[in-house]
Specification:
The complex is a heterotrimer of chains A (326), B (317) and C (241). Chain B is mainly α and 317 residues long. Chain B has 11 helices and 3 strands. The relative contact order of chain B is 0.20. Chain C is globular and about 50 Å long. The chains are: A mainly alpha (326), B mainly alpha (317), C alpha/beta (241). At the A-C interface, helix 7, helix 8 and helix 15 of A face helix 2, helix 3, helix 5 and helix 6 of C.
Chain lengths: 326, 317, 241
């Protein structure tokens, strides 16, 4: 099943790569570019949320930190975009270390609270600081080349997906994260250092968010605390990952595409009732938890296997006897 | 000590008393304001702390319950013309019922077969928060309102040794209300059979089950009380400050702050943490830069988590 | 007597006002199997938690191979050669049996592929290979206890702490587990074992340490300890209570 999922992900990446050859419509390109960005954000969120079991309710803060770092360095420091983008990722990762060290030692509830508070603190900071432009935000030099941003986003999101796939599904790191998610105490007895590993996961989850934020800033050319540090980035990433399926890479990606597609139609047809979108997001996530705890991916997997989760009989004695029989 | 309206002409200007430095003249007022508002923060966090202590539910929606309660108070006041403070029991009853009805759904979310029940509860209340906020914005719009009470325009003036303080009557009410709610809750938890059952449940879910305590019903009541107290506090807040559909997030942050400072689930720490928060805020307002108040609060929260993650009294879980 | 691998030196542990361990001293020699027994609440699991780094003792020292390891964290001790099982078995429920053991093998085989190969060997040795791809949550109690041993063994420990790995199994399963323990011992691992079932302790231990109310009340060869009046009284006291 792992292999078939990798295959599907590869096909999807190929489809995204050829879309600009089929249409030159600026609006369509813009929508697909943003859809890819959400795939990257949701998948990155799941490194910590799904694989490690620590819910980051401040994902948007890291996206915004990346966006602001890139914007400030380009506008005030006259850095080239590529370097400023790297700095955006580094800033987000460094912030994760600072925020993670005290909170990732504790139970997940503290982490969830602390990250949510962090996102408000960062927004407040951007509002009161001078060099961020305060509530007026910042304008970046326009670079109006949709194709550039399309392929940049495609390359970045593909790279994020591949790197996470290798680290989480193919290498030791992913297994360690899952072990910690399942039983932190037990994992320690096996030589794992939970706090160090969780902080690494937090960095791995936030660096992509910071980089995507940097791309977003240069692409949209205008950022302010409400747009890149508002709640929506966090809200959508969480809903996409939970709805798609926690603890997988394909799940959040599917969730991102579906939720974003829905949002796009919704925005186009019902733009005067935008707050309804919050109700829908909230309802989707609450219902997912109750009725679809493994997300859409879990639903599909269950359909295919059609096997209950308990393959062994619960009867201890019969099991023991069967084992000694030749 | 005199009593009168804020507009009373007898108010003597402070500049006459130059023997006390101006910043020192402000201190008693700042401390008093901090304590009064800290009192209200007790009730912002009390229900939340109770729900966490008993059921390990982090209620991201706590601020939204405050918002909904405030708006119920606002509309009831406009329809009935009664003083909003007289409507507090009605708001409490309505929202206790709401919480009682919602708790079984939360219970279902946290008792699924999936890994970590606490996390599933978190995601659920996070979703609840989004949905309620969206609904609030849709129905109530983006405007701010206030819920004027008969007490809103009255103040007490105190004078001692050349220092003046003003005590707005509505804030004094908020303080008394918070202390009263805390005392009642304390009494219920310590002196009634229901309280005994709640404490047993908080100690040990399995043992409580063995003792014949209906854990689910108790859980529903606890969540109901949390929602009821929070909503009622919304009305009090609305008659002190103002209300809007966006207000929820600010109060959720305050509740988080108080509860982490107190120690998660440690109910007895809540009042002290709330007073401390109130003092920090009001002193920062007078002696610091007001736009950095929130950041100062976050900095303290961070330091607490770094130095003493189980709260000021090291009694959290 | 052989050289001491583990030395517990006057260890005490208090929780609040409760004295869970009271000035306990004993040692486990290289190549020895030492049984740790005592009535319920005697402090056996607390002692395990101290030795494996989950609790820091209030006073006293723990030495491994002469080196002071008091207060070291569990992951450091795992690296130094202490493997343990938990009385309340807790496999990584969402992972397969193979993945569970692979996590443990990562300690000495940092690459996932190598760890997986090593895990297969461990599964063969412990008789779990036929269930390798099942989710660990689906195992029977016997299977889960065996998985605990397999994980501890994957650390290639010098000292293995076994916390009630036989209790709760039916006689056939119990015999198989005892065989496994003896196999592990023959491969050169020293063992400290807590067990409720006397038959097991008396048969496999070189020496037995008896705890009661947190204090050591007897120590010696199984046969002698079984006849020690203090020990008999401690157990009779429990039966009468």
């Amino acid at each position: 099943m792992q292999r078939s999922r990798a295959l599907w992900a590869g096909i999807a990446a190929g489809v995204f790569a050829v879309i600009p050859l089929l249409t030159r419509d600026t609006f369509a390109l813009r929508v697909v570019t943003e859809a890819m960005m959400w795939i990257g954000l949701a998948v990155a969120w799941d490194v910590l949320g799904g694989y490690t079991g620590y819910l980051n309710f401040g994902h948007g803060a890291f996206f915004g930190l990346g966006a602001y770092t890139t914007a400030v360095l380009m506008m005030r420091g006259h850095w080239p975009f590529a370097l400023a983008l790297v700095a955006g990722g580094v800033t987000a990762g460094a912030a994760a270390v600072v925020a993670g060290l005290p909170t990732l030692r504790l139970k997940g509830a503290y982490f969830a609270i602390a990250t949510w508070a962090l996102s408000r603190a960062v927004q407040q900071l951007a509002l009161v600081l001078e060099f961020t432009g305060g509530p007026d935000g910042m304008r970046l030099p326009p670079f109006l080349n949709p194709m550039f941003f399309y392929y940049l986003m495609w390359a970045l999101v593909t790279a994020i997906f591949v790197v996470l796939w290798i680290l989480l599904e193919r290498s030791a790191f992913g297994l360690k994260l899952q072990a910690i998610r399942e039983d932190e105490e037990g994992a320690m007895a096996l030589g794992l250092r939970p706090t160090a590993i969780k902080v690494q996961a937090f960095v791995l989850s936030t660096v992509p968010a910071g980089i995507l934020g940097g791309v977003y800033a240069y692409w949209i050319t205008f950022i302010d605390p409400a747009s890149v540090l508002g709640d929506l980035v966090t809200d959508q990433s969480v809903v996409m990952a939970v709805f798609g399926g926690l603890g997988t890479l394909v799940g959040p990606a599917v969730g991102a595409v579906l939720i974003y597609a829905f949002k796009t139609f919704f925005w186009a047809y019902l733009s005067e009732y935008q707050v309804l979108y919050l109700i829908i997001l909230g309802t989707v996530i609450a219902l997912s938890v109750v009725f679809l705890p493994d997300g859409l991916i879990g639903l599909m997997a269950r359909r295919r296997i059609k096997e209950p989760a308990e393959p062994e009989p619960a009867d201890e004695d019969s099991q023991g006897l069967r084992e000694v029989a030749p | 000590m005199r009593r009168g309206d804020e507009t009373e002409p007898g108010l003597r200007p402070r500049q006459l008393f130059t023997e006390v430095p101006v910043l020192w003249q402000l201190l008693p007022q700042a401390v008093l304001d901090g304590l009064l508002i800290g009192g209200v923060y007790i009730t912002v966090a009390l229900g939340f702390s109770l729900a966490f202590g008993v059921m390990h539910i982090i209620d991201f929606a706590v601020g939204e319950w405050i918002m909904l309660g405030a708006f119920l108070g606002y509309y009831l006041q406009r329809w009935t013309g009664l003083d909003p403070l007289a409507l507090l029991p009605v708001v409490f009853a309505v929202f206790t019922a709401v919480g009682y009805v919602i708790q079984p759904v939360i219970h279902r979310a946290v008792s699924g077969r999936r890994g970590n029940p606490v996390l599933m509860g978190l995601v659920f209340t996070f979703g609840l928060m989004l949905a309620i906020r969206g609904a609030g914005l849709t129905v109530f719009g983006f405007f701010s309102h206030s819920i004027p009470s008969a007490l809103s325009a009255r103040s007490l003036f105190l004078e001692a040794g050349g220092l003046f303080v003003t005590v707005p009557a509505i804030r004094l009410f908020g303080f008394v209300y918070a202390i009263g709610i805390t005392a009642v809750l304390h009494w219920v938890l310590r002196r009634t059979d229901f309280g005994l059952a709640v404490r047993a449940l908080a100690q040990n879910r399995d043992a409580a089950g063995l003792m014949g305590i209906n854990a689910r019903r108790i859980g529903s009541w606890v969540y109901g009380i949390h929602v009821g107290v929070s909503a009622m506090t919304g009305v009090v807040i609305g008659s002190i400050f103002s209300i809007s559909a966006q207000m929820g997030g600010d109060y959720t942050i305050l509740a988080f702050f108080v509860v982490v400072l107190a120690g998660m689930g440690y109910l007895a720490g809540v009042p002290w943490a709330a007073f401390l928060l109130g003092l920090v805020q009001s002193l920062f307002l007078v002696y610091g830069n007001p736009s950095y108040t929130l950041l100062a609060v976050f900095a303290i929260l961070y330091l607490i988590l770094l130095v003493s993650p189980k709260g000021l009294f090291a009694k959290g879980v | 007597m052989s050289r001491a691998l583990l030395t517990v030196d006057r260890v005490s542990m208090t929780f609040g006002g409760l004295r869970a361990l009271d000035d306990v001293s004993f040692s486990v020699g290289t190549g020895e199997i030492v049984g740790l027994i005592g009535p319920n609440g005697a402090g056996k699991t607390t002692l395990f938690n101290v030795v494996s780094g989950y609790c820091r003792p209030t006073s006293g020292r723990v030495r491994l191979d002469g080196k002071d390891v008091t207060g070291k964290r569990p992951f450091d001790l795992a690296r130094l050669g202490i493997g343990r099982t938990f009385q309340i078995v807790k496999p990584f429920a969402g992972l397969t049996v193979l993945e569970n053991v692979t996590v443990a093998c990562l300690l000495h085989h940092p690459r996932r592929r190598h760890a997986r190969q090593k895990a297969w060997e461990i599964l063969e040795f412990t008789g779990l290979a036929d269930r390798a791809h099942r989710p660990a949550s689906g195992l029977t109690l016997a299977g889960r206890k065996r998985l605990e041993i397999a994980k501890a063994l994957s650390l290639t420990p010098r000292l293995l702490l076994l916390d009630e790995v036989v209790a709760g199994l039916n006689p056939t399963e119990a015999d198989r587990t005892i065989e496994l323990i003896l196999d592990i011992h023959r491969s050169g691992v020293s063992i400290l074992i807590v067990e409720h079932i006397m038959r097991v302790i008396m048969n496999i231990s070189d020496r037995v340490v008896v705890l009661n109310y947190g204090a050591k009340i007897a120590e010696g060869p199984p046969r002698e300890v079984a006849q020690d009046p203090t020990v008999i009284e401690a157990y009779l006291g429990e039966a009468a209570a």
